[in-house]
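It is worth pausing here to work through a concrete case rather than discussing structure prediction in the abstract. The textbook approach is simple: state the sequence, then state the predicted structure, then interpret. We follow exactly that order.
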Amino acid sequence: MSPRLKKLIKLAVVAGVVVFVVLQVFPAKVIGIPTQDIGNNPPERFPFDGPPEVEKIMRHACFDCHSNETRWPLYARIAPGSWLMARDIHNGRNHLNFSKWADSDEDERQTDREDCLEQIENGAMPPWFYILPFHPDAKLTPADKATLKAYFLKNKKPDAEPTMAPAPAKDAPKAAPKTEAKTP
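Step two, the predicted structure:
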């Protein structure tokens, strides 16, 4: 290896270390990333109303982003990974937070369940970047999906038939147009 290449590699390593250190103290909220809650979970909790097998699946595949029971591993405190995790959890809790279901009525919760099922069936949840490389246990098996589907649809109301106003009968007399009498 040439001396010039060695010097460039050393310079790149030093620059990388400096950038990494600066990222650890940079206030990410300046660029819109909500990092104030990293490592903290809000106190609100709603006791999960599903059977134990459903709760087990939900805890390892959903609760880290969609509840106030997030597991904050060590790497959740190291930027820029902490920023990505904080953003994802903030967005997940804003979209659906199982810990705040006490604020919702049963119809709202059932709508949330059906939305969850749709996301799972479409393959959107859990997202691949959550599963790999740190949470391979969050990958849903076909049996997990079947268990969740049964739970999510347990209270589903059958779709109501659309109600339409009856069409007027063909032989019904039409109302005569109103005419105004003119006075001289």
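Step three, interpretation. Confidence is low (pLDDT under 50) at residues 160-168. The first helix runs from residue 3 to 25.
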